Amino acid sequence: MKKVIAREKLPELWKSLAAKGPLFLPIQEGPVVLFQPWSEGAEANLDAVNTAVSAKDVFLPREETYLQYRCSGNQLELIPVENAEPVIAFGVHPCDLKAVEMLDKVYLDQEPSDELYRQRREKTTVVGLSCREPDPFCFCNEFGINPADAPGADVMAHLKNGLVLLEARTDKGKALLDQAGDLLQDGSDEKFEAAEVKTADFGLNLEGLPENLKERFEDPVWDELYKSCLGCGVCTYVCPTCYCFDVEDFGHEGEGQRFRCWDSCMYGHFTDMAGGHNPRAGRKERVRQRFMHKLQYYPETFNEIACVGCGRCLRSCPVNLDIVQAIKALGGETVEQR
Amino acid sequence: MAERNVESVNKVREAVSQDLLGGRIDLLLGWEKGHYWWQSRPLFARSEADLEKLAWDSFCAVNLSRYLLEELKDHDKVGVLVKGCDARAFNRLLQDNMVRREQVILYGLPCPGMLDYNRLVEKAGGAPLEITEENGRVIIKVGSGEQEAQRDDLLLDKCKDCRYPDPAVYDQLLFSPQGEKEVTERFKTVEELEEMSAEERFGYWEKELSRCLRCYACRQACPFCSCRECFVEQENPRWQGRAYQPSENFMFHLVRAYHGTGRCIDCGECERSCPVDIPLQELNRKLIKDINELYGDYEAGLDPEQEPPLLTYRPDDPAAFSEK
Ligand code: SF4
Ligand code: SF4
Ligand code: SF4
Ligand code: SF4
Ligand code: SF4
Q: Lowest CB count within 10 Å: A145, A251, B87, B279, which one?
């Protein structure tokens, strides 16, 4: 099913889609663009290439309540929370959607699977958005990602000459376009090929890197690489493929909620253990964990490197210690480029 | 820019290489180029080969003084390249007894102000390919041609209202000083916020802070945040929870800002490090302004002998809290 809508009509589309449940869009929030629920008056920005924080916020929210509790006397009442209302994520770029597939492998494809994640994932309709012009930080090509297409999207969207072309690819996608009804026009005659997009070429050679790293836990590279790291966690918070969380309570006087929220291996307390021991005592161990996880542990289990080249750590690390620097330091570079 | 730049890098390299190769310092903290010409990242130089990578250009924003906290554990004597803000950061650490002066050699770099990549993009109307600088102007090359702009309009926020671009402390000054700068807009936003009603202001901060990820990068980058254990991580008592709730946002931001009262050196590293651009400097500068108004002009980090107002006691201290 193929439909089109004029760009200036989009606010009407947002309104109609948001009537049924949260509609996440890249929204201009002051100086930055973030994936957030749209509401009347919010300024959607489909021209931004990458949001400051990745779209994983929709699938694995920074904070997710899963239980409410109430104590009175010595009675404890536990109230489960229904979290997953139908959600639309509109404008997810190919890199971010590829990253969601990587989260799926962690949260769905292993036993036991993660129920919170499953509910949310199943009830989310994804509208992918092709990239017309990459950001200088984008390097998804290095991971074989085609910025013009997001396989796995329920609807694929392209921006073209003041029009938005929408192609439904799944039943969920068709239902979404149906929901929009008369706001959309027939687009069967429109060409849906997005132009080829070339992203930054760092000359990476990832072939064999995960196997190669297997024996390199004690490699002297780690003694140098970590030095500039501030341990600030920005890289993990903005990254679409980082998926660690912590569990905590928020409450007052015997009443409150239990939630999970993003956590980061770049923090000291991430591995604080009862009794006071911390197996990752310093920044070196933490930096090694982050890069080994992306480049060795994840690929060992799931057969692909846990980076999609979205470029967010290249953009946001305050001291420019990013995944490309790590890959190069570890020898994952084409030899001619050296 | 290219030629002048080579010249000045050489000058820096010459100054530090004698000391590093001669064994006067064990480590030099400097900058090197990253993947992009608009990024310069920290360099930890121990050899001549390391010094080959040294950079000193319009993108050396990262404050290097903070690395002393870690590096002085492993080295007897460390050399650091310091801009104006980095030197004040060093004084901050010194006053907080986190470093010892005799363990550090400071190479002072009077700073022309660092450029902001996002401003370059904005001015050029697209991804800039390269820039050349001459006489306070910047020529930005883009795919479709060239754009010219005033250098001052392309500065990082942290550099825009920087009053002291010259290092306040150094062992060796590598270039001629820029002189104290006249800044007119330093407290402009603070004044606007002061004009608001309490409700308006609360609403403003609630909205701004709503996008805070509470990653605490602002703390990690800050030269006054050198506590061995931050209140944020303290388990008992547990001051700070992790919920993304307005109350938790306010808790963190108020405590962080208050801990810097009279101690914040106005380097802007917190704001520069924030991945979602929270205007942290507005909070910091409100407190700087209050200190100035209550205790007389005080510029943290300028003079390590001058105690921060809130760390001293005078019988004639203004008792503004009880009066208002
Ligand atoms: S690598 Fe960069 S972004 Fe990540 S924790 Fe270290 S300093 Fe922060
Ligand atoms: S490691 Fe960096 S480039 Fe790779 S997916 Fe994460 S944020 Fe994006
Ligand atoms: S990394 Fe690739 S897919 Fe992601 S925004 Fe950039 S060009 Fe698009
Ligand atoms: S203000 Fe910015 S840097 Fe500080 S905790 Fe919030 S998101 Fe992180
Ligand atoms: S609070 Fe910000 S401006 Fe003040 S010293 Fe810390 S990093 Fe610098």
A: A251
